[in-house]
Amino acid sequence: MEDDADESETLSSILSELESSHGCRDEESPLSESSILGLQSLLDAAPDNAVVVFWDRLAAGGLPASAILRPLSSSMEDSSPRLSLLAARAYLSLLLSPASPLFSLFTPLAFLSLLRSIRRSLKSLTLSSPASPELPLDASNGPSDRRRNGRKRKPPRPACRASTFPMDQASGVPDLLPRVLQLLDSVLCRVQLDGTADALKPLVETLSEILSSSSSHHGLQDLCFRVLYSLVSKPEHGDQTTSAAEVLRSLAPMLLSPVKSPSRASAIAFITKMLVPLGYENDAVRKALVYLPRFLSIKAPEKSEPRACAVDSIMEIVQAMQEEDRVGYAGFVVKMTQGKSQLRLLAVDLILSLLTSSPNSFVVKELPQYSNDNVWGVNCLRALIQRCSDSATAIRARALTNTAQLLGLLAVDSDSASHLWDLIGMGKVSFSDLLRSRCQDDKAAVRKAALLLVTKSIKLFGRPVEEVLLKILSSACSDPLVTIRKAAIIALSEACRIYPDGSVITQWLHSVPRLIVDNETSIQEDCENLFQELVLDRISRASNLNFEKDATSLESLFPEGLFDLLKGTCDSEVAICVRKICACLGKKKKIKVSVVRSLQNTIKISESLWLSTGKSIEKWTAPPGTWQLLSVVSLFTPKAVEWEFLHHHWHLLDKVIEEEHGKNNIDDGGEPNSFMWAGDRVHLLQTIANVSLELPPEPAAELACNLLDRLKNFNMNLSEVDAHVKALKTLCKRKATRAEEGDILVLKWVQQLLSKALEILDSYVTDVRESSKMDSFLTPQNRRKGTRDASISKLTFKAVTAAFTIGSSIIVCPSANIHGIVAVLHTIITSENSETKSRKLVGSTISFKELALPLYIQSWVTMGKMCLVDDKLAKRYIPLFVQELERSDNAALRNNIMVAMTDFCVRYTALVDCYIHKITISLRDSCEVVRRQTFILLSQLLQRDYVKWRGVLFLRFLLSLVDESAKIRHLADFLFGNILKAKAPLLAYNSFVEAIFFLNDCSIHSFNNETQGGLNNISQLFSIRGTDEKSRSQRMHIYLSLLRQMAPEHLLATSAKLCAEILAAASDGLLNIDDVAGLSVLRDALEILACKEMRIQPIRGSDSSEMDDEGGEGGGNINAARCRVVTQVAKKNLIQIAIPIFIELKQLLESKNSPLTGCLMECLRVLLKDYKSEIDEILVADKQLQKELLYDIQKYEAAKAKSTVAEAIANVQRSESYRSPLNGQNSAGIYTRVAENLGTQGKLASAVADAAAKAKVMSVLKEANRKTPTPLRAMNVPKLKDTQGSTGVLSSKRPQSVLESLRRRQSFESDEGD
């Protein structure tokens, strides 16, 4: 009874509040919270007849059923989220109550209020803790707190006591919102949204907003997806295709989320597990689902990481679809590759995912059949390869990278690789041509991706790599960017690994090992690892091979490519790198014993095979490179070398030497392989020296005596002499019990050698002098040169060997006595000077340069070695070395002196520093070898800071950038582009203006006056003076090389310096532009200011065309900010400083009718083309110049638009879609396609329209010439007779020739021209 009384009291209170609100129609009167809670308690707890009583009493009071809508709607619009949700729950409960008038209660306005209530609660939901939704709201929810604190007090309305709905009073937003969504789902089962205008879209947007803002409230997400599924699955809510499209469109932001959030995963699961299965049974829903991936593709973001997330979302949805739908989407993706740049970039990623995720995309082994089921995969692959030549850099790079990844996944075996190669080569441009062109692309990102594609494609070639591609890969190993060099190393090594052909091995050996001296440590490590894998490990496979008597050739017994590797290491440039790599591997103890054993085994098998054929052992030589590599690796594995093996070959070489000397005594000739034997002897001695500690005592002593005896004979090759000296020193040092004992032994035999060598030199000088005196007293008829010349020739060889032995001995023992030797060498190297001074004294002096040039050269080399160990001697003779370097006409001597001067610079830096300006003259030597040697040696000194970049040194080095030799140019590019850019980044900026004056041989600049004060005689040697095309292009090449090294702020400062020091000097008369040099300086300055390298390039995003090797996101932001600041300062300097100078200079040039006026106008056009809208303000001081510039800019842009359109038309005509002969309809399609590709920009659109109009008129004129029916002839007009009497459309009294000439006229160009 008490409960009935309470319900009656609650009904009375609610009805009274409704009556009062119904009477106030002009004011919004929401229901109070107590009334809403009371109504909810009736709807939840009362029996059905109580709800009927509510409607009856409402009607009895004269209130319509809709009277409750207005107060409830007002309550749902309340700013308090809790009160708003309570009203929403009550409203939905009313709709679900028995006998409720749905048509009266469910109105669009009330439904929109309900949705706004739900949206308003989201903000409060995000502020509450999702982990504990049962907790009450905080102090911000005042009404709830007040009720909770006053539960024991009597409520203000007796009819609505708190004890009736205690849980409602404690409920918050996290509790109410799920209940509201549950009720909403139930209501949608009773009502139909099809008849309610604008109800579906707001509902879907509200639910999507809940999904995106409540990622951690999984219960809410499930409820929202349940409601969305109800909207799509039930046709009573409207057209199912429209509903599904609306739902899917609302989920698109979550699907394209840049991060993999839970809401994104839930949305994908809802689509793939609920909507896609529904689409299998419902074609209306399927129709919307089919277009979802396409919609997402159009809306996908452009940046890298968000785009990758979008691709993942799209592919998860596509994989859940039926095969037919996947094929249709694949066709759409192929069409995307012909769209805008953003779509093309996304398409290349989608193609990769489509082909890798769908195993039936195409069956690689059945590609030649091209069945209908797998043709979509073929089309995708073709489209991907076509995008490798895209006009956009980022798309080219991405397409190349994805193609490489795809080929790596699909080419699983030889058959698959073969069929893939057939497939990718079906295009108009061969795949090999594509690789070559992309590996030489201007953009670094494209080159890197192309090198990756080469690495993955090598398996597909089925044959050794082409020579042209190998050279491209080899040059890429010297790229300025670290990542490019790494990619090139990997590609070239992969080619060497799969196809160990002679040409591949040669290119690998000349490209990869030299990177052991790279500045990047990781590249050095890669170089070591690859050398160990591809060279040492391959050689070590021959360690257990045995000689087979039935073998016909040595190559058949050993692994493929082994002898090509060994022979390649004999190259002088490669050998240096091999020694460095082996030294690094040896220090890390990575050289295996099997390598040494394999090399010994190779030599043994080669000898056995030679003897098995019955040939003489004297004509046998070991495979090239075996002894050389053995001499290098044996230092780190001395115990692996067998003494019996070394002893056998040492005696064998001795035997060959004796036989060679015997033959030389008989016929004065040698065997063709004597040089090979000499090289093997040198490396054998080095091997013996390496393993000297492991030699037995008696054989070691015998070997030392043998070495010394052979040195005392002075009849060996010079390379052998040095090897003998070093081996003998090593034996003495290692076999001595103490270090002092070893030094004494070395000094003892060195003094013996020096004494014997001094005797030989003294004897030779005396003999030559006596011979010269005898010849001076004889007439030419009485001179007998035959026998005497032969004997002198033998003595000369012995004297040269003695001089070389002296030098080698002094190096190994600096403490030896050399006083007597200095006098003899001084006599030889100064003989030419003495002969010049005493020309009148017949027979008093001789010239060894004329009589014995080899001795003369070797004496200079030996004197240089002696100066290295004696500083007093160096002070006396260094000026003589410089003098001989300047005046000598022998390239070999100049080269040797250059090497000696480099060593002097390291040992006696202060003494040589004053001669650097004379040494650098060799950079312009007539001999390429001397120039290259000078460049390399001076570069090494500069890197080690023995020589500083000051004076004319840097300026003279610049000319190496345009040297006649390609090798020197390559070295110079590497020096300026890599080494100096890192070591001296400000050098190019500080010396740029001086370089302009220096290269033009213009002495106006103060720097040039100071540096060239005493060198005017050689100024032309280091200048590229002239206005001819070749000289200008060479100078511009140097300028651009320097500009590429500058930072944006340095480019700005350089621009200001050019204006202040050259342009301003010319306008002020300080620079004489009437002179050829001054005119060239001014022209160069204008061309530099107009070049694209001088412009400050904007910093692009992650998908930029260029690559930042080591920079990260923070560095990119800093660079972007710096670039923006520099750009603003550049604009300010242009307006305030440069433009006034340009105006004055233009007036000066015009007054002199200078040919540089056009160059100045072109420079101004380039500088101001980005400020077209501000030209009126910038050039306010010169209105005529303003008009001329505007005209030039308009003319240039029109010509550029015209050429762009012409190129686009040609590209479209060459495409596959337009291979048929052009007709009128096809021609119109071409221009429509061109207009779509180029966009709707004003000048481009106008140019396309002009081209289309021109083509149309040309077509009409051709048809008129052929007298074929035209639209004009088909018109219903009176037929008149022409002058010939025939009936036609046109008639005139003018002669036929005039009409014919007009008809044939084909020029429709504008008056501006090109």
TrEMBL record:
For the biological process aspect of GO, one term held by this record is: meiotic chromosome condensation
Q: Which GO terms describe its molecular function?
A: histone binding
Localization in the cell: Nucleus
Q: Please report the name of this protein according to its UniProt entry.
A: Condensin complex subunit 1 C-terminal domain-containing protein
Q: Which UniProt keywords apply?
A: Cell cycle, Cell division, Mitosis, Nucleus
Q: In its keyword annotation, does this UniProt entry include Cell division?
A: yes
What is the top-level taxon of the source organism? Eukaryota
Quote the biased-composition stretches of kind Polar residues, using this chain's numbering.
Answer: 1283-1299
> Known InterPro entries for this protein?
CND1/NCAPD3, Cnd1_C
Write out the ranges of the annotated region (Disordered). 128-167, 1264-1314
Keyword set includes Nucleus: yes
Q: Give a GO cellular-component term.
A: condensed chromosome, centromeric region
Question: Which regions form coiled coils?
Answer: none
Kindly list the organism's lineage.
Answer: Eukaryota, Viridiplantae, Streptophyta, Embryophyta, Tracheophyta
Matching Pfam families, A to Z? Cnd1 (PF12717)
For the Condensin complex subunit 1 C-terminal domain, which residue ranges apply? 893-1012
